[in-house]
Amino acid sequence: MFKNLTKELKEFILRGNVLDMAVGIIIGAAFGKIVDSLVKDVIMPPIGLILGKVDFSNLYLQIYPYNVHYNSLQAAKDAGAVTINYGIFINNIISFLIVACAVFILIKAINKLKNSIIKQDKIEQENTSKTCPYCCSTIPLKATRCPFCTSTLTQD
């Protein structure tokens, strides 16, 4: 029984879809880290500078305790203050938009490639095939009899 389970598990893992999914998840996680760094380290500092030297990752709204001010979000967290971290939320929104744009561009490129392959296949098929005038099936260009309806064809 255990041997049969391991065999089934091995077949499942070695299936193409599972391996493709695993590679996609690993690359997606790495891509997420790159985008996160792009937002935090490249995009947000100039935006913060333009907006008056604002550090978005340090923007927060303190809910509790009242009448106490902390110099940074980390200091507020260390003191146990209750905060709404809207600066981190803004960073995450920008990260999401960058990932969404990148995925959109990738999907658009893949669709363009697919369409060009489909067009090329149609051109090749048009050069090597014709339509049977009796049953409208696609048949080889040199065929003298339709393999689908067995009609005798005249050579054009």
Structural class label: mainly alpha
Order of the strands making up the biggest sheet: 1-2
Chain-averaged pLDDT: 86
User: What letter string, H or E per element, gives the SSE order?
Assistant: HHEHEHEE
* Low-pLDDT residue spans: none
The radius of gyration over CA amounts to 30 Å
Compact description:
The chain has 156 residues and is mainly alpha-helical. It contains four helices and four strands.
What does this structure look like?
This protein has 156 residues and is mainly alpha-helical. It has a domain at 1-54. It is 62% helix and 8% strand. The protein has helices at residues 2-14, 16-50, 73-78, 86-128; strands at 61-64, 82-84, 129-131, 138-140. The protein has a two-stranded antiparallel ribbon with strand order 1-2. It is elongated, with a radius of gyration of 30 Å. The termini are far apart.
Topology:
Blueprint (H helix, E strand, L loop, with lengths): L1 H13 L1 H35 L10 E4 L8 H6 L3 E3 L1 H43 E3 L6 E3 L16
Antiparallel strand pairs: 1-2, 3-4
Give me some keywords for this one.
two-stranded antiparallel sheet, mainly alpha, 62% helix, 8% strand, 156 residues
